[in-house]
Design a protein that fits this description.
Layout lengths: L7 H7 L8 E7 L2 E7 L5 H8 L18 E4 L2 E4 L12 E3 L11 H8 L9 H14 L5 H8 L9 H17 L1
Parallel strand pairs: 1-5
Antiparallel strand pairs: 1-2, 3-4, 3-5
Bound molecules: FE2/S2 (inorganic) cluster (2 copies).
């Protein structure tokens, strides 16, 4: 069966009432331009996972409370479970899959060296938040680390190892 969707812009230009809210959105994710079809209110998280197959970003609370879904948008950590896809156009989106080639980012290296994860569920969000923090402040104080990371919860209580790994990554970044 032929499916025909009218996107919002087409309807506006042609004076049509748009009963179908699906539209096409161009997103730049991990350096690649994608065109995705979605409702404008669809959370970016679902577009990343379901449309683009980038399942490294996790769903947990779905209400901006836990940070498991954190990605970077224009360098800032953002909770993708509550960001509508229509707000993510014209932005540079980075997910855990695009943070580095072969886990070579200093934060990822430190995470491996310190064996940070327990169940691991929260850690793509933790790593994306930590990398964003160090990008803006390569040598944060403990208080700045706490403040920068407090939006990402860990039910397994890996916080001491998260702290240690961020300090380690910070030392490496500051030296280079
Ligand atoms: S899943 Fe987005 S903040 Fe919890
Ligand atoms: S390692 Fe299990 S939730 Fe963080």
């Amino acid at each position: 069966m032929l499916k025909f969707y009218l996107n919002a812009e087409f309807c506006k230009l042609n004076g049509f009432v748009n009963y179908n809210t699906m539209g096409f959105y161009k997103l730049t994710v991990n350096g690649q331009l994608h065109s995705v079809e979605a409702d404008p209110d669809t959370p970016l998280l679902w577009v990343l996972r379901d449309n683009l197959g980038l399942t490294g970003t996790k769903f947990s609370c779905g209400i901006a409370q836990c940070g498991a879904c954190t990605v970077q948008i224009n360098g800032d950590p953002v909770r993708s479970c509550v960001m509508p896809v229509s707000s993510a156009i014209n932005s540079k989106i980075v997910t855990i899959e695009g943070l580095s080639i072969a886990n070579s980012h200093p934060v990822q290296k430190a995470w491996i060296e310190e064996q940070v994860p327990q169940c691991g569920y929260c850690h793509s969000g933790q790593i994306m938040a930590a990398a964003a923090l160090l990008e803006k402040n390569a040598n944060p104080s403990d208080e700045e680390i706490h403040n920068g990371m407090r939006g990402v919860l860990c039910r397994c209580g890996t916080y001491p190892r998260v702290m240690k790994a961020i300090r380690k990554a910070s030392a490496k970044i500051s030296k280079s």
